[in-house]
């Protein structure tokens, strides 16, 4: 096992990893930009190294700065958290070339899943159901028209190099196709420096269902059920729950089994998430994330497992500490993302926290790096906390969420807390009756 791990991240996820390290008796090293000198992860880690100025390009994303920090402190492994370098295959290669361990999958698996066309081909080969679509990239409008005619309208044009919902355009009919195709290509070129696009059948009212998987890199693979993350704004998740309210135990076992088998066959190492759109009882693969997800705590709650501990174990060459039979689903968990943002436009709202009080009590977990007097810097993500609740069933989890939100105090900046108070009053949220468009429509009607 490692003696010392460097955490190449900040905020709540850096704390999350430090906590796992401490429980495992492993020393932790925080890295930080000058803007984060007073951040909680710097205070909580056993050691801290300043790796650069405010700009994340020059600090949290700087390969040489992070490798040098490992050399100075003697850290043997790097945990990337999520975002930043967590899905950067070139970084993983360099980490390994320096004789260090990357806590995550191999560079090859990251690369394979980072390119959407290759990811889809791989998924199909492994027996994972995919969205009907073009065979590979679509080079011109004529080919796009042909592909669309075959799969039927509406269609969606997506960037091969895509991410964060950019470079995607829907065409409801052939009349809209040419403009949609050209726009998707130019957006993709601007955002990713690559204008290759592919096409899929556009699903009209799907839910976003993602399966948590884990592999030991030695042929072992399990699934930890699904999360429903359908409540999204601009393709950003805001409210996540597990298990999915629309998924039966039989469906869970079926899709989970397919995913676990695929992971084992790939020889995948560590945590991963296989994302699907789900409509009329069918799952359609859209992408795989080769890292720990923001919303992993809802899965931890219902399976009572520490996913970060497990990531560290398998990175150190150990086998998984649980088998599929050990993983028994218990109750229901919900996470809401507390962002420093001003409604109704969700404008980032950095600034000084004058008062912070975290909720507590049975079944409540608050993952946050906030403290009284902390100043949220304007340079990074606006996520300032995740409130996770666990109950014996969904109604209990909802009641607990309402109670816990009532106890949470974040003063000094605007936050998304009022959004969740309002959402909990909605019948569709209470019954779990929503799809990926529900929140956008609700925001238009209620905040627009
Ligand atoms: P990104 O990596 O940019 O987030 P994804 O492929 O994960 O791209 O898709 C992001 C979101 O776009 C999905 O969660 C869904 O809301 C929407 N989407 C993607 N593909 C389709 C499709 N075939 N039909 C309907 N909606 C889609």
From TrEMBL:
Pathway(s) annotated for this protein in UniProt: Lipid metabolism; malonyl-CoA biosynthesis; malonyl-CoA from acetyl-CoA: step 1/1
All copies of domain ATP-grasp, residue ranges: 120-316
InterPro entries from the UniProt entry: ACC_Biotin_Carboxylase, Acetyl_CoA_COase_biotin_COase, ATP-grasp, ATP_grasp_subdomain_1, BC-like_N, Biotin_carboxylation_dom, Biotin_COase_C, CPAse_ATP-bd
GO BP annotations listed: fatty acid biosynthetic process; malonyl-CoA biosynthetic process
Pfam families named in the record: Biotin_carb_C, Biotin_carb_N, CPSase_L_D2
Assigned keywords, A-Z: ATP-binding, Biotin, Fatty acid biosynthesis, Fatty acid metabolism, Ligase, Lipid biosynthesis, Lipid metabolism, Magnesium, Metal-binding, Nucleotide-binding
Molecular function terms, GO-annotated: ATP binding; biotin carboxylase activity; metal ion binding
E.C. number(s) listed in UniProt: 6.3.4.14
Catalytic reaction list: N(6)-biotinyl-L-lysyl-[protein] + hydrogencarbonate + ATP = N(6)-carboxybiotinyl-L-lysyl-[protein] + ADP + phosphate + H(+)
Top-level taxon in the UniProt lineage: Bacteria
Location of the Biotin carboxylation domain: 1-444
Subunit details: Acetyl-CoA carboxylase is a heterohexamer of biotin carboxyl carrier protein, biotin carboxylase and the two subunits of carboxyl transferase in a 2:2 complex.
Biological role stated in the UniProt entry: This protein is a component of the acetyl coenzyme A carboxylase complex; first, biotin carboxylase catalyzes the carboxylation of the carrier protein and then the transcarboxylase transfers the carboxyl group to form malonyl-CoA.
NCBIfam families: accC, PRK08591.1
Protein name per the record: Biotin carboxylase
Organism for this UniProt entry: Celeribacter baekdonensis B30
């Amino acid at each position: 096992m490692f003696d010392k791990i460097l955490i190449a991240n900040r905020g709540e996820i850096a704390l999350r990893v430090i906590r796992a390290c401490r429980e495992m008796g492993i020393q932790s090293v925080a890295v930080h930009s000058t803007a984060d000198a007073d951040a909680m992860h710097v205070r909580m880690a056993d050691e801290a190294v300043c790796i650069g100025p405010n700009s994340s390009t020059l600090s949290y994303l700087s390969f040489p700065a992070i490798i040098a920090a490992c050399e100075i402190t003697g850290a043997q492994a790097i945990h990337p958290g999520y975002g930043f370098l967590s899905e950067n295959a070139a970084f993983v290669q360099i980490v390994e070339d320096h004789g260090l361990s990357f806590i995550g999958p191999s560079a090859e698996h990251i690369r394979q899943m980072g390119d959407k066309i290759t990811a889809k081909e791989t998924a199909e080969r492994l027996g994972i159901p995919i969205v009907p679509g073009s065979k590979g990239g679509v080079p011109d409008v004529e080919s796009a028209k042909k592909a669309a005619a075959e799969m039927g309208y509406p269609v969606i044009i997506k960037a091969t190099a895509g991410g964060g919902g950019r470079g995607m355009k829907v065409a409801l009919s052939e009349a809209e196709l040419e403009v949609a195709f050209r726009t998707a290509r130019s957006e993709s070129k601007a955002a990713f420096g690559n204008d290759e696009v592919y096409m899929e059948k556009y699903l009209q009212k799907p839910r976003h269902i993602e399966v948590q998987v884990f592999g030991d890199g030695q042929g072992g693979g399990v699934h930890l059920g699904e999360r429903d993350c359908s409540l999204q704004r601009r393709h950003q998740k805001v409210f996540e729950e597990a298990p999915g309210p629309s998924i039966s135990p039989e469906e869970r076992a079926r899709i989970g089994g397919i995913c676990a088998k695929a992971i084992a066959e790939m020889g995948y190492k560590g945590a991963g998430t296989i994302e699907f759109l789900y409509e009329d009882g069918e799952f359609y693969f859209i992408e795989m994330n080769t890292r720990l997800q923001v919303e992993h705590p809802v899965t931890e709650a219902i399976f009572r497992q520490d996913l970060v501990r497990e990531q560290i174990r398998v990175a150190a060459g150990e086998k998984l500490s649980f088998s599929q039979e050990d993983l028994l689903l218990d109750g229901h968990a919900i996470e809401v993302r507390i962002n420093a943002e001003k409604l109704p436009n969700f404008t980032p709202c950095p600034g000084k926290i004058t008062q912070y009080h975290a909720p507590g009590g049975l079944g409540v977990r608050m993952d946050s790096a906030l403290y009284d007097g902390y100043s949220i810097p304007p340079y990074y993500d606006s996520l300032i906390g995740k409130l996770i609740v666990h109950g014996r069933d969904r109604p209990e989890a909802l009641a607990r969420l309402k109670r816990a939100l009532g106890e949470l105090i974040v003063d000094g900046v605007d936050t998304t807390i009022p959004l969740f108070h309002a959402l909990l009053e909605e019948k569709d949220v209470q019954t779990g009756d929503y799809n990926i468009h529900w929140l956008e429509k609700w925001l238009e009607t209620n905040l627009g």
